[in-house]
Amino acid sequence: MKVVFERTKGLTNEETHYCPGCTHGIVHRLVGETLEELGVLENTVGVASVGCSVLSYHYFNCDMTQAAHGRAPAVATGLKRVLPQDRIVFTYQGDGDLASIGMGEVVHAAARGENITVIFVNNAIYGMTGGQMAPTTLIGQRTATSPQGRDIQSHGLPIRVSEMLATIDGASYIERVSTHNVKQVVRAKKAIKNAFKNQQEKKGFSMVEVLSSCPTNWGLTPEESLQWIEEQMVPYYPLGILKNSSVITEDIR
Amino acid sequence: MGKVLMKGNEVIGESAIQAGCKYFFGYPITPQSELVAYMAQRLPEVEGLFLQAESEVAAINMVYGASSAGVRVMTSSSSPGFSLKQEGISFLASAELPAVIVNIARGGPGLGNIQPSQSDYFQATKGGGHGDYNTPVLAPSSLQEIVELTDEAFRIADEYRTPVILLGDGMLGQMMEPVDFEVTKDNKEFQKDWATTGTVGDGPPKTITSLDLDDVRLEERNKQLQIKYKKIKATETKVECYLMDDAEVAVVAYGTVSRIVRSAIKRARDNGIKVGLIRPISLWPFPVEKIAYYSNKVKSIITVEMNAGQMVEDVRLAVEGKVPVTFYGRTGGVIPSINEVHEQILSMVNEVAK
Ligand SMILES: Cc1ncc(C[n+]2csc(CCOP(=O)(O)OP(=O)(O)O)c2C)c(N)n1
Questions:
Q1: Residue B204 counted as domain residue
Q2: N or C: which end of chain B has fewer CB within 10 A?
Q3: pLDDT tens-digit readout, B108-127
Q4: Nearest CA of chain B to the CA of A18: how many Å?
Q5: Other CB atoms closer than 10 Å to residue A29's CB: what's the count?
Q6: Do B207 and A57 touch (CB under 8 A)?
Q7: A·B CB contacts under 8 A
Q8: Distance, in angstroms, between A109 CA and closest chain B CA?
Q9: Which segments of B203-274 are extended strands (E)?
């Protein structure tokens, strides 16, 4: 019998706890496959954050450290700075974790040109705590803490994190991708691979923002959720490479 | 090398380096800033790493990351910054990661001032952050003792896989004294097979976490922590007793203020008053047994602190009402004078004689 598709060695055999239709699982697989294909699984230490992916240390088949809410880039900094040169360090964070409580840590990790890879899952909501407004929640989007829909007057405007980080000189590779169809998932894989390669080549800070679904808290079916990403999120959060510079840390360090 | 004249903050830095700590993550705050500057200068010379973090929150989490990788690592701050580190310290305690955290305390609450204070005693000794945990707290009273206790702090941290607090104040941080670094050091090697350094060459993936969604398993983790704390209490309690053999009055004081108390005791002794000093060196574990022992021998106890009365609660718990325990303290960064403390000893003696 010919094997045509196999589970990546980058993930454990554990069944994930994610809701049906949630794209966290897809992003996990893309990261796992990347680590396997680059042959760095044994040299990698991942940092799990606080959010729905808090238990990602059960799923990634490499050494994992779990960080306090928002602090994954600081924990990753500590790891990366003391581990042997050939080690790969990544964080896996949601938008509440990275763009709200942990905004300071990610900005400064980028500013230092910290040679880590950040996987940033933007689902425009706080998933784990039951669907509250995130800094990335769209105008008009109903959440538990914006029951009438997010309005500019009281809640301000959503943050485009990738664009913001791209303005920071220390950031080397920044790309925004999506998970709403197969073509986008294939592109997301390529971006994630580029980000990890960026780290292997010691180019400094890399981040891939992945637009992701949360059917449970959006109150949509899985299919509607993918559509919502495409129709609502992508126009506000345009896809593509925002930064790809190779001049950074090699000169600095 | 012999004796060298240094500032307390610098002594902490050099002692840490000599204890094998090559990694430091910090953030400037008076009165500990010389320590940050010292590490920035010295660590590159020993092929270590100094990193100025964007905040105390980031610094303690960088420590968490570095400790996860199995290295000896330290951070330092002063009171407001120490408050910011508390969530991280709770995580370190739960994930059982060794680290040394220095608090060169200053007057509070709030922004307070930059004068020396002992008002972070509760925060340091009662856990400080959320959850059921304690951290060993070592409180030196001289710069030479900083050398010994910094080495001890790293040894205890590794031995028990726990964060350890080195608690001083602005006075100890800023003063200069001659110190000798050539003292007996603990050279014990620690195997850190739990560290997340990548699985290369060492089997299945390892995880460091403080999370357990299962209540029964989390209770088990708590029980294990309590067993560890019991062991620390049994083996790591440190206390100095000075002129206590024939004492009728005991003064309990630690750190900076114990130096003033010592002078006041000498003066009282010159006047024929039988008074001695009990100086807790480890504030957690607290020297309960020693104080309980002397509470059967003395007529009264005074606790002197540079706060509104914090350690006195632990003293009273240890004394269990056997003798009167009074308190004398100054707050806001004021250091009590020898005269003031001497007066307190005299009035206590008169009170007891009535
Ligand atoms: C200090 C702290 N504050 C708040 C929380 C509660 N909390 C847990 S997860 C979370 C939000 C996570 O949302 P996000 O990062 O968007 O990830 P998602 O769950 O959507 O994947 C919050 C606020 C916490 N654990 N710690």
A1: no
A2: C
A3: 999 999 999 999 999 999 99
A4: 15
A5: 18
A6: yes
A7: 132
A8: 9
A9: 207-208, 239-242, 249-252
DSSP string, A158-182: ---HHHHHHTSTTEEEEEEEE-SSH
CB contact under 8 A, B68 and A75: yes
Among the listed residues A93, A188, A192, the one whose alpha carbon sits nearest the alpha carbon of residue A135: A93
Structural domain contains residue B173:
yes
In terms of domains, do B251 and B193 share one? no
Is residue B207 a part of any domain in this protein?
Answer: no
Q: Which residue of A has its CA nearest to B59?
A: A74
Domain-embedded: residue A212: yes
State the residue range of the domain holding A74. Answer: 24-244
Q: How far is the CA of A56 from the centre of ligand 1 (A)?
A: 14
B255 and B139 together in one domain: no
Q: Cα(A134) to centroid of ligand 1, in Å?
A: 10
Are B65 and B94 in contact by the 8 Å Cβ rule? The answer is no
Task: State whether B151 and B40 are in the same domain.
Answer: yes
Same-domain check for residues B22 and B144: yes
Q: Please state the separation of Cα A125 from the chain's center in Å.
A: 14
| CATH number of the domain to which A226 belongs | 3.40.50.970
pTM over 0.95: yes
Angle at B245 between CA B243 and CA B251, to 5 degrees: 50
- Residue whose CA is closest, atom 20 of ligand 1? A127
As a whole number of angstroms, the distance between CA B41 and CA B43 comes to 6
What is Dmax (Cα atoms) for chain A?
62
- State the smallest CA–CA distance between residue B283 and chain A in angstroms: 28
Using a CB–CB cutoff of 8 Å, tell me whether A81 touches chain B.
yes
**Model confidence over A94-140: pLDDT tens digits?**
999 999 999 999 999 999 999 999 999 999 999 999 999 999 999 99
Domain membership of residue B324 as a residue range: 240-353
